[in-house]
Amino acid sequence: MMTTSLLDSVLEAHGGLDRWRSFSSVAATIVTGGKLWGIKGQPQDPVPRRMSVALQRQRASVQPFGAPDQRTDFTPGRVAIEKLDGRVVAEQTAPRTTFADHVLSTPWNPLQRAYFNGYALWTYLTTPFFMSLPGMVVTEIGPVLDHGERWRGLQVRYPDGIASHSRQEEFFFGSDFLIRRHDYRVDVAGGFAAQHHVSEIVDAGGIMVPTRRRAYRCDAAGRPLADELMVAIDISDVSFAP
User: Fold this and answer.
1) What tens digit of pLDDT does each residue of 67-85 get?
2) Which terminal residue of the chain, N or C, has fewer Cβ atoms less than 10 Å from its own Cβ?
3) Domains delineated in the chain
């Protein structure tokens, strides 16, 4: 990890590394919507689901998935759909390679949807603390003006072995050092640019967690398109475990 004074302040504002490292996992209830799922042939219903992620390594699971007695098992090198007793329904190794030559309109299969869900929610539920993991390169970048405020920025370059939307992403923080925005390109969906706004931050066991997430597709100038809400996530019942 390359440290910056901004990153130190951000980590402290979100609960501090010592508290974060006292936990091994976090679970949360999620309700998901947005245009992306229909575009990808994976329509999303409003049923609440339980998402669980590991904190010190990249692993995630959501249930139910596809059937009431099924869940996902995600790591960067493998994604699976399982029965709750662990029996494998379907699996894919090296899942990232299956998105080669995809454009925004290319349909996903359920395993590709599970892969996207796994890495995305892992990132969202571990921000900003994942930036302290080995191999992350974090540098301060120029601020942005958004919602009438000046938000300072951190650019993150992920190491090999960590899956995310794109290899390099940007995060922006308010004057209180809490997360406000996350910018990236969705490489597994043709590389479209997204601006992801977060709000309604709650204290969950001493860790500050945004509970409202809205990701918009951007135009060629990088401005979010108000009618292009690609992903909406509402988060509740956040619980950290040692």
Assistant:
1) 999 999 999 999 999 999 9
2) C
3) 5-241 (2.50.20.10)
